[in-house]
Protein 1
Amino acid sequence: MINTKVNLAGVILKNPVMTASGTFGSGAEYAEFVNLNQLGAVVTKGVASVPWEGNPTPRIAEVYGGMLNAVGLQNPGIDRFVERDIPFLAKYDTKIMVNVCGRTTEDYCEVVERLADQPVDLLEINISCPNVKEGGIAFGQDPKAVEEITQEVKKVAKQPVVMKLSPNVTSIGEMAKAAEAGGADVISLINTLTGMKIDIHKRAFALANRTGGLSGPAIHPVAVRMVYEAAHAVKIPIIGMGGIASAEDAIEMILAGATAIAVGTANFYNPTATIEIAGGIREYMEQYGIQDIQELVGAVG
C-alpha cells in the first residue's frame, strides 16, 4: 500500500501537491478543469485586510523560460473572501491554506485574527510585501523583521503558520532560521525572483511597474538549491515551489528536503498540471518500490 500522505504541523494532506498562491485564484476558476478533491491542498490568492487594486497595466510579460508578473496582489479583501471563497472551498475534500498579505504587521495580524474561526487549515504569510513602516523594504529581506512578524502573527493565529520566504536575499538559510526562531510551524519557498524585461522596439519597459516577479521553469534550479539550504538550516517542514511543471520537478524538490510542493506558473498553460503531478509522484513511487513518501523527503543529503 503506497502512502502519499504528508504532515504539515499536524495537518495531514492526502498527497504533497498543492497550488501556489496567485496562480489558482481561490479554486473556483479551475474547478471545471481540476478535481480539487485530488489535491493535497488549495492555496488561495493573497488576501489583505482591505481590497487592493494592484499595480497599473501592463503587469504580465512572457519571458524565456517563464513569466514576469507585477499584479501587485490585487484582491477583494478579507470580508469578500470570507463571504465567497471559503464556503466554496469548504465543499471539497482538500485542505485550505489562505495566503495573507499586508503592508504593516498590524495588517497581517488583522487578517489572521479574522480567519481564526474560519474553516481553514493553514495560513501562509507572504512576507515579500513591502513594509511601509520601514521605507518599503520587503519584510522578508531582513531576518530581524522576519522573526518579529512571525512572532506577532503567531500570537493571534489559531491555525499553523507557514512563512513564505523571498529568494531575493543573501542567505535563504538565515531567513529560514529567523522564521523558525519566530515560531513558524512551516516555511514555504521560493517566492518569485525580481526580474525585468525591456521591449526593444518600443524602447520601454514591458511592465508598467518596471520590475516584476520571475516565475516558471527558469527559476527551478535556484528554488531546488534554496529548498536544500533551508532544509539544512531548520527542523520545521518545508513547502517547496518554483518552476515545478512535472512530477520529476516535484520529486527533485522533495529529495532536496521539501515535505510538500506547490505548483504555480504551470497552472496557466496546463490547468491540469497539479493532478498530473500528483499521479506522476505515485507512479514514481510504484516504479521504485517506495512505500511511504517520507522515504523521499531530503533523501539526497
Protein 2
Amino acid sequence: MRGLTNIEGIYFLGIGGIGMSALARYFLSQGFIICGYDRTESPLTDTLAEEGCTITYEDSIDSLPVLFSEPTENDRVLIIYTPAIPKDNVLLNYFRNNGYSIYKRAEILGIISRDTDAVAVAGTHGKTTVSTMTAHILSVSPIGCSAFLGGISKNYDTNLLLSESRYTVMEADEFDRSFLHLSPLISVVTAIDPDHLDIYGTAENMIGAYSEFCQLVRPGGMLILNEKIASSLSLPSDATIYTYGTGEGASFRATAIRKEEGSYTFDIITPAGTVKDLRLRLPGMVNILNSTAAAAAAWCAGVTADDIREALWSYEGVRRRFDIRYTGREIIYVDDYAHHPQEINALVSAVRDFWPGKHVTGIFQPHLYTRTRDFAAGFAEALDKLDEILLLTLYPARENPIPGVSSGMIAGLMKNRNVRVVTKEELLVALRDVKQGLLLTIGAGDIDRFIEPITEMLKEKNA
C-alpha cells in the first residue's frame, strides 16, 4: 500500500476480529511492527501472537507499547479500528484525543481496493463462502490473487492470501456501511435480506446502501447479481451486468444438477458456453448457487473452464461454514456460523437433503439483542424445522441488554416444544444424552468455544 513511507508500526483496535486479523497479517508481512487490543483471547489472537504480533486484552493506556504511547511520536504510527469497538473504549479515545492518524478497517481496505483490481463480494448471506471460493479458483489458475477473507479457508488454513497477482478478493461487509469505501473492478451481491437494522433502521435503507455499493463498480467493470435480487437494486450504466442462478434468464445458470455419493455434479451455462461436469463436495443447493457466483467472478477475471472445474472439486470449504467436524457411527457433527433466519433455513435444508431421514439436534446461540428482537419470529420458524433444539443464552457482542429480549423470547414463539434454553455452563452436560443422527452448532457468538470440547466428547462417547 502506498503512502506508508514514514510509518513504523500499526495498532489494531479489535485485532482478534476475522477481518482485522487478516489486515494485521497483511501489514506484518510488509515488515511493520504490529500491535493490538482485543477484549478476549481467542485462537485467532493466539495465532497472531505466534506470528509476531503484540496483543493486549487490557483497555488501558498503560498496556500500550512505547511506540504507540507517546503522542510526540504519533507520526510514526497508524491506528486501525473496527466499528465493533465501543465508543467509550479508553484506547480509542486516547488516540483520538492525541492527534493520531486513525482509520476504520473499511477505509484501509478501500485504499487497497483502489491500488489493485478488486473483486468485492457482498451480501447478507453467502459472502464468506463465495469470496473464499473465488479466491481459491483464482489461486488454482495461473491468474492468482491476494485475498482478505471473512473466514479461515480450509484449503490454506488462513484468512489472508498474498500473491503478485493484480487481483485482490475482498469480502465486502455491509455492517456500518463499510462496503461503501471500496472501489471494485468486479462486484458480486449474493443476497439483500434485511439485517443490521440497528444500523439501517429499515430494510429499504439497507437495500439503498446495496444500490450504492453497486454504483461503486469502476467504469467498464462487471457486476454479478443473484437473479432474485437484480430488480430490487439501482444498477450502474457504465458496467456490464450479469446475473446468476438456476432460472432460464440467468447469465450464469446452474443446470443438470445431480447428487452423487458425497458430492454434487452440475453444469454452468456461461455467456461463452457451458462448463460441464463440475463437482462440489459441499452439500446443499445454496452451495451450488455459491459456486455459480464464484465461477462467474473467476470467469470475469479470465479463468478457464478447466481451472474452474479443478478448483471447485478441490475446494474444502471455510471453517464454521457447513464445517463437518466429526463423523462417527452414530452421529455426525456440523458447525455453522448461521446467525440469520434465512441462513438457518439454508443450513437445515442442506442437512436434510444430504442426510435424509436423520434426527437433527441443533444448538443455537442468538447473536445481538437487536437482531434477536427484529427476527425472533423468523428464528422460531427456522428452528422449528429441527427435531430438537438447545438454545444457548444470547450473545450480546457490542450491545447493551434490551428488556424482554432473550433466547427465551425465541423459545416462546416456537411450535416445536422439544426446545430448552441452557446456559454455557449447562451445555456439555445437556449433550451427554444427545440422540443418534446429526448435531449442529449454529451461531456467530462465542459458541465456537464449544467446537473442540463437543468434538472430543463425541469421540470419547463413540470410541
Protein 3
Amino acid sequence: MAFKYSVKIGKNAAKSQAHDADVSYKDLGEVARAIKGRRVKDAFKALDDAVKLKHAIPFKRHAKGCGHRSELGGKKGRYPVKACKLVREVLKNAVANAVSQGLNEEKLAVKMARAYKQGEYPRHRRFWVSGATLGYGKRAIWSNYITSRLEIIVEEMEPRKPRPVKTRRRTHRRYHN
C-alpha cells in the first residue's frame, strides 16, 4: 500500500518515504526536525556524526530524562543511531530521485522531513519484568509493537544572499545646562 505525501511538491523537488519501519517514531521525529532546512551535505554530516557518537541530535519534544550535551551548548540531546541510519537511507534515496529528475545535487536542501506513528500492534513482552499475573499463565506486561513512517522532500534552492550589515546610526546626546 502506497501512502500519500502530506504536502504537494513543485517541479524542482523530489521525495522519498519509508513506511512500516521498526524504529521509534519519537526518535525519527527529532532527527527529522534536526535536518529540516539544511543543505543535503550538511544533513548527511549531522547524521553521520550522530551515528559515530561525535555530535548529538538535539531533542526538544520527547526529551524526558534526556541528558545535557556539551556539544549542544548544554541543551538536551541523544544519539539515536537506528533512526539516523534510516533517515540517511531515505535521504539518500530522495537525492537519487532528484538527480534522476535532472536537479543539481549541490543545490539540494531538505525542504520537509516528517515522521509519523503508523501502526500499533498489541503484544505481551517476551521477557520477565515483574510478578504481576493475569491468571491462566498470562503476565500483565504489555509492550505494544509500534511501527513508524518517514517522508522526506528535497528541493533545489539557490544559495542565500548574505544579509547586508546594518550600520548603527550614532546619535550624540547633548547635555544642556
